[in-house]
Amino acid sequence: MQGRRFSIALGAFFLTTQLAPAAATTGFKFNRDTLSFANSTVFAYEQGRIVSTGNRDKEKSQRYTRRCFVMSRTVLQFYKFASFDRHAPPLDEKELAKRVRAVTRMQPWHPALPSDQRIVFPGYRDLREMSQAHTRLLQENIGLGWTAYVRPGNFRMFYLHSKKYQEKTHEELERTLAGGAFFVAYLSDYPTLHINHSVLVYTHKQRRAPDGTDRYLTYDPNHPDGPRELKWLPAQRAFDFQKDQEFVGGFTRVFQVYGKPWQ
Question: 2, 183, 209, 244: least buried by Cβ within 10 Å?
Fold first, then answer.
């Protein structure tokens, strides 16, 4: 009997070890683990409608646009592969840029690194503080924006429009969060194109409603001030994203990105 109990306990131990998330998102804090600066839209919007298609030339050199995919991915990568040491002297800009590039060149779907193998950023408490102190440096080193337009996984927007696919996406979102991982979402309502955007889903906002509605908190690169809400509406078998100046709100398709190669 004792041997059988020992075997059961040992099996439970290994099962727990295998299922334990490498970097549980339960420790994620918006005001600590996200970037302090915003992704800027190419056009000017009011209530989700384009009101100016000009280049805004006076601001052009300072504006940071088309980086929603890059910024969502960067937040994930820093959470999984970087650490901070506020008590150590900060790096010079050359070395800091080198380490930023090292983090953002790591494959986002790889397991999180243990604490003693992470890339260290001395002189700062967290990503929010460092990105506030070195905004331009991070913007210039986390990645190019145009590459999002040629990502193979993004071409799903043209042909995967079924409600069944969105149900499967919702199931995958639930599995991902239950496993302690992030879900980077590509939001699109093609061919309407009210929204063409990427956000990082990191936790449930609250318990599932009696009607099956799920509410999620997201890091939206356009809004560094606080999390925004993505909803799953089971009756419609569709996702719904929160309204803002750039988006009229409501229906959007969701496609997972950065969960595996070629996605």
Answer: 2
Distance from the first to the final alpha carbon of the chain = 49
Domain presence at residue 12? no
Taken in order 193, 195, 201, 204, the sign of the CA dihedral is negative
pLDDT at 148: 77
| Residue 56 DSSP code | -
Please write the tens of the pLDDT for every residue from 193-226.
889 999 999 999 999 999 999 999 999 999 999 9
173 and 138 inside one domain: no
Q: For 38-71, how does the pLDDT look when each residue is reduced to its tens digit (9 = 90+)?
A: 997 655 554 445 555 555 444 555 678 889 999 9
Contact 98, 1 (CB under 8 A): no
Q: Same domain, yes or no, for 71 and 137?
A: yes
User: How many domains is the chain partitioned into structurally?
Assistant: 2
Task: For residues 122 and 91, give the distance between their C-alpha atoms in angstroms, rounded to a whole number.
Answer: 7
Of 91, 163, 162, 159, which Cα lies nearest the Cα of 121? 91
Residue 19 falls inside a structural domain:
no
> Residue 251 is part of which domain span?
159-257
Asked if the structure places residue 175 within a domain, the reply is yes
Instruction: Count Cα atoms within 13 angstroms, Cβ side, for 50.
Output: 10
